[in-house]
Amino acid sequence: MPAPDPRPLTGEPVSLDLLNTRWNHEGAAHDLLAGTDGLAVWLASNGLAGRFRADTPTLERTLAARDALAAVVDAPDDPAAAVRLNEVLGHGRIRAVLGPEGPAEEPEFADPSWGPGWIAARDYLDLLRTAPDRIRACAHEACVLHFFDTSRNGTRRWCSMAVCGNRAKASRHYARATRTAKES
pLDDT tens across 63-77, in order? Predict the structure, then answer.
């Protein structure tokens, strides 16, 4: 049984959740995928633990997928970033099947260690297809997390209003209080 997931933001679509395996906390950078134990946590958090092994080859390929996703999210118009993501996507494909509940699709991989990263890359394409303007980075300058904005009006700015949103409010309050104190 893997350890509990220590990340501050979970439950995002798998592509963004893979990006969120890196985060900052109290000025220190953290990386869930620093080893295979963290990969086991991430696989379990995304319902992939029974399908893929948390071993070194899977970790290496998942890190490659995370780097490719980060490049394309940070620079969506960069052709080199698209090439990197397409290289990850080249390691799998969708196979149409007829299952007990009707038509379905299943991913296939020549090398299963590419599975988790490929699934995350494919998920990113699905997000681009449905609502590319809802893929967001947290607006707090010290935060590196990403989220899919599901708010009704599409104006969410923070990965978490309780954490980053509150930090921004506290910073603005401190700046106002300091300015007022200096003016007095």
Answer: 999 999 999 999 999
